[in-house]
Amino acid sequence: MNLKQRITADFMAAFKAKQTEKKNFLGLIKSTIDNEEKSNKGYQGEITDESILKIIAKFEKNTNELIKVSTGEALANANAELEILKSYLPTKLTDAEIEAEIKLAIDNGANNIGGVMAWFKDKQADRKVVSTIAVQLLK
To answer: Which whole number is the average pLDDT over 92-107?
Structure first.
């Protein structure tokens, strides 16, 4: 089951279980995916999981920003939305795993911040954390 099918199945399950907030949020994600799929941005046919992950990552970033400024019920809703989003995103590397990967990158010839960041190109890691740790280790 690809990511779009999984989101659709979760949307239908939330609809049947009368979980209004979850259904509405998943509906928003579904409509964003459908809009991307219909737009002429280079997609041929069905949208890829990689493209869907980029959309979900944008939602995650916006939700994290919302959490920083929200209080009360809005904060609770934003946290609930973030949990929904995290269920679709791959797990990110921990700080210890990032440090180990940076040391490996340095051992393999990455002698500057650009080389280290290139090492993390296809890895699921917070780029700010990677940069901070890399600067410390490259000193």
So the answer is: 88
